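Dear colleagues,

I hope this message finds you well. In preparation for our joint manuscript, I am sending the Phosphotransferase (Pardalotus punctatus) sequence together with its predicted structure, so that both groups work from identical material. I would be grateful if you could confirm receipt.
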Amino acid sequence: FARRLHKTVRKLLPDCEIRFVRSEDGSGKGAAMVTAVAYRLAAQHKARQKILEPLKLSHEQLLEVKERMKIEMEKGLGKETHAEATVKMLPTYVCSTPDGTEKGDFLALDLGGTNFRVLLVRVRNGMRRGVEMHNKIYSIPLEIMQGTGEELFDHIVHCISDFLEYMGMKGVSLPLGFTFSFPCQQNNLDEGILLKWTKGFKATGCEGEDVVGLLKEAIHRREEFDLDVVAVVNDTVGTMMTCGYEDPYCEVGLIIGTGTNACYMEEMRNVELVEGDEGRMCINMEWGAFGDNGCLDDFRTEFDLAVDDLSLNPGKQRFEKMISGMYLGEIVRNILMDFTKRGLLFRGRISERLKTRGIFETKFLSQIESDCLALLQVRSILQHLGLESTCDDSIIVKEVCTVVARRAAQLCGAGMAAVVDKIRENRGLDFLKITVGVDGTLYKLHPHFSNVMHETVKQLSPKCEVTFLQSEDGSGKGAALITAVACRIRDAGQR
Ligand code: ADP
Ligand code: MG
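The corresponding C-alpha cells are as follows:
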C-alpha cells in the first residue's frame, strides 16, 4: 500500500521531491510538538513586544511631550533664557505673509536641501495673479562643501552667473532671496549669521559670519554683476510663505524630509530678542534640537541612543533623530539587529548586510508599509537588502517599520500641537482655525505618516482646527515671495 501510494503521488507531482516519513505516535508526541511550537512562538512574540513597548507612546506621554515643547519654546523666546535654550526660536524678520499684490521678477538661491538651485521667479498680481518659475540644479562637489568658505561662495556665484547666461539675462540686476536652510541668527531680514553647519556641510570660515556678506564679497570678487540681496530665508519660512500665498490662514511652516523643523507667526510682545511689541514675526524654531538638554531622555530608547552615538553630531538634534528621514531607517535596522541577536528574527542569523550602517533607507519603510504590498513583496525587498527571510520574518519587519514610523509621526504631531495651542493662547481664543504648510519627502511619500500626525494633533489640541497644506517647492518659491513682500513694503515706504 505504502509503496503504491508513494509511487502515485510522485507520478502526479513530477516537479516535487517528496519524502514520506513514518510517524511514531503522532497523536501523543504531535500534540506535545504543536504545543511546544505554539509556546515558543508566543514566548518570542512576547519578547519582541517587550522590546517594542518603549517605542509605543500613550496619549498621556504625548501630552507630556507637547507640554515640554511648550516650556522649551518659552525658554528660546525669553531674553534671559535664550542663551542656554536648546530650541533656539530664532527671529526671522519676516513680519507679514503675502497679500496677493506682490509683483516682479526675483532671483532665488536654495542651499541646504538635497540640491543647490538657482531660480528665476516671476510673481504677477491682479487678473493674472500667480507665480512662474524657472530653475536649474547645480551640484556642490564634496571638496567644495568641505573646503573653504571663499571656495564655496565663489562656486555659488559661478552658478548664478551660469544661470543668468542660460536665461539670457546677463547683466540684469534683480532682487534676490537666499534660502539658506541652516540655523542662522538674524538681526535683519537681509542678514544671517551662520550658527553652525549641519547636513554634511563643513566649509571653513563661515560659522559666526553673515552669509549675505560672504555672498556679496564673492560677487565683488567676480566683478561681473551686482545683486540686491533682500532676504535670507529658512526653508520652513519659505514653505509657510508659499502656502500663505494660496491660503491666508497659513501661519505655520513644517518640514519633514532629511531633517525636521518648524516655524510660526509669534506675537512681537513675546519675541524678547527683538525690540517692539506691535504685530507678529515669524520664528524659526529649529525644533530638531528639542531634547538636547536631556528633557526627552525618558522617551529615548536604546535604539535612539545607538543611532545618535554613530551619527555625525552625537548628542545633537535629538528630536530630529527620532523623526526624520535621515534616521528612521537606522532605528529600524538597530531593532532588527537586536531581535536577531536574541534569536527572535531571521532564525537568529546576523548577516553582514544587516550590520551595515545605512542599508535600511527610509524609503524602504514607505515601501514595506504600503498597503497594497503583499508579504511576498516585503520579502523581496528584504532579499534585495541581502536578508533571507521567512514569511513570519516579513510580518515582524513590517511591524517594526510601523511602530517606528508611527512614533515619529506622533512625536511630530505632539510638537505641532504645542505650536498651534500656543498661537491660540497668544490670541486669547477659545477656538483657532489655522493652516500648516508642509514640505518634505517623508511627509509626502510615506503611506501613513501624515494621517497619524494629523490624528495626533487633533487629539492633543482639540481646541484647534488644523488644516495641512502641502507646499510645492517652498524653498524656491518661498524665497521669492518673501523678497517680493519685502520689496512691496520697501516701495510703499519710499512713496
Ligand atoms: P531635503 O529635506 O533634503 O530638502 P526631501 O524633503 O526631499 O529633501 O527629503 C529627502 C529625504 O526623504 C531623504 O533623505 C530620505 O530620508 C527621505 N525619503 C526619500 N524617499 C522617501 C520615501 N519614499 N518615503 C519616505 N522617505 C523618503
Ligand atoms: Mg527641502
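For the figure legend, we might mention the following. The longest strand covers residues 116-124. The chain has two domains: 59-89+247-470, 93-239+473-488.

With kind regards,
E.M.
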